[in-house]
Design goal:
Blueprint: H1 11-22, H2 26-36, H3 41-57
Helix pairs in contact: 1-2
Length: 69
């Protein structure tokens, strides 16, 4: 895909991207973020799902089942 659009990620977003390259399981990515960063479960869940939605909206990934619970 060559759209000429640049997508920047912060430190956590970069960590998520690296995890996406290794696995396609949202629950696993969520658990790894909880281990790596000091963040509340609800905030992690909300922010992760928002990032995945943004990446999917940009056509960079495809999320089939994003449930974390």
């Amino acid at each position: 895909m060559n759209t000429g659009t640049y997508h920047g990620l912060n430190e956590v977003g970069n960590s998520v991207w690296k995890l996406i390259e290794q696995t396609q399981v949202v629950r696993y990515i969520y658990q790894k973020l909880l281990q790596e960063y000091e963040i509340e479960n609800s905030v992690c869940s909300k922010d992760l799902l928002a990032l995945l939605d943004d990446l999917q909206g940009a056509g960079l990934i495809e999320v089939k089942n994003e449930a974390i619970a």
